[in-house]
Amino acid sequence: MDKGKIIVLDDDPVVTLSCKRILGAEGYNITAVGKGEDALRQLEKEEYDILITDIRLPDISGIEVLREARIPTLEDAKESIRLGAFEYIEKPFTPDFMLNVARKVFDKRGWILRQAYIDEFRDYLVPLRDKENPVIFYKEGVWARPTKTGLWETGYDLRYEMAAGEMLYVDYLKVNKVKAGEPFARLLTGSGKIVDIASPMTAEIKETNGKANDVICSLLKEHLSEGWLVWLAKVIPLEM
What we know:
The protein is of the alpha/beta class. Helix content is about 35%, strand content about 30%. It has helices at about 15-25, 35-45, 60-70, 75-85, 95-120, 160-165, 210-220, and strands at about 5-10, 30-35, 50-55, 75, 85, 125, 135, 140-145, 150-155, 170, 175-180, 185-190, 195-200, 205-210, 230-235.
């Protein structure tokens, strides 16, 4: 199974052959080219996860290729870092060093994608572990937690369905107030299962999460379901 696509740009065939042997043996899909223009043509035809490039090339510099490519890269100097480089590889390099660099770049790129996702949906996500506002679990996957505004966030733990790869959709019931144990929303799954999401408390519903289904789709796509919950409603608890 390919771990990712890497293009190696170096006019020294020993270097490109070494990269192909080292990284290819670990499951990376490697393309090697010896000229900057060849690399740019290849980058126009296919998408790559990483570009590993030499600085000094027979036609154009590695910096210029990086500037044109604008993809995650391993290279040298402040200019290249500004353009998207992650790491500098000094020659000669050992196989372990090259593998560690590749793994670090993929890990870092994954972290950046996750952070961008979290930033986009920050207001619609609830961290599973929050010391200031801990999540309180009720029965059958329902949970709630107090917030600093005085409202409570409540929702349903979707992680089991996500782990099963289910397509999920939240359907809200048109209610302003709900009694403890009564549903305020339903979860529809790709297998046809319908889950009533019961309120853990008698409450007035002040807000529903209009981005819930977008967040759920993104969680499934980015494999970020572990450690995060999606709030479905913000409520004010009512006296019985």
